[in-house]
Write a structure and sequence with these properties.
By secondary structure, this protein is mostly helical. It folds into two domains: 58 residues, Arc Repressor Mutant, subunit A (Orthogonal Bundle); 116 residues, Tetracycline Repressor, domain 2 (Orthogonal Bundle), CATH 1.10.357.10. Helix content is 64%, strand content 0%. Helix 8 packs antiparallel against helix 9. The N terminus is likely disordered.
Length: 215
């Protein structure tokens, strides 16, 4: 079984989808695929938090997770693919999207949770992944498919529930609403143009949504 060729972390491809962790109490031995993927993604997420994308090398993830590099390369052909998938999984856990039946509040809380995470190390990692999307061939496609699209799909569902409940304006395109709400937070993150503490994030979200809420 050979390792990936030199420079493999710099060439881009499509990572395999994450599967949830396997059950506890399994006898020692070769880990099953879900257990392997969970161990690798957990290790990658920890390294991203500690040192950003630069710290999330395949070598470092292999050492942290105890999973051999050949097994990692079979699923993630390079650092960027692994970092994007690990970050998406980490954000899904840290800023889950809730659907309580109150669309405006659910969308507000989704933005507040995300902004709160972006105020810490996750914000720096996100900025680094955006930079990779500009500088590395193919990284933008990975970031869109593995990070932005799944989250936008869930946000669109929240929006559509609000429209059906008469809480949100049916004349507003959901994609425009999502961009207006979350785009402001990303701009502040990247430019440092104002606070995004929970109170400020909630105020920004409600400023956007007030004009989109059904009267």
């Amino acid at each position: 079984m050979s390792t990936a060729p030199a420079g493999a972390e710099g060439s881009l491809g499509t990572p395999m989808a994450f599967a949830p962790p396997g059950g506890a109490g399994r006898p020692p031995g070769r880990p099953r695929k879900p257990e392997l993927q969970a161990a690798v993604l957990d290790a990658a997420a920890a390294l991203l938090t500690e040192g950003g994308v630069a710290a999330c090398s395949i070598d470092a993830v292999s050492r942290r997770s105890g999973i051999g590099k050949p097994a990692i390369y079979r699923r993630w052909p390079h650092r960027t693919a692994l970092a994007i998938e690990a970050f998406a999984r980490h954000l899904a856990r840290g800023a889950p999207l809730l659907d309580t039946g109150h669309a405006e509040e659910d969308l507000t809380e989704a933005f507040v949770r995300l902004a709160d995470l972006y105020r810490g190390p996750d914000g720096a990692v996100f900025a680094q992944l955006l930079a990779a999307a500009v500088l590395e061939p193919g990284a933008a496609v990975l970031l869109r498919e593995r990070f932005f699209t799944p989250r936008r799909d869930h946000l669109r569902i929240l929006w559509e529930h609000g429209v059906r409940a008469g809480q949100l304006n049916s004349d507003v395109d959901p994609a425009d609403a999502i961009d207006a709400l979350f785009g402001g937070g990303v701009l502040r993150l990247l430019t440092g143009g104002g606070a995004l503490d929970p109170a400020a994030a909630r105020r920004l979200a409600r400023t956007v949504l007030h004009g989109l809420t059904a009267r």
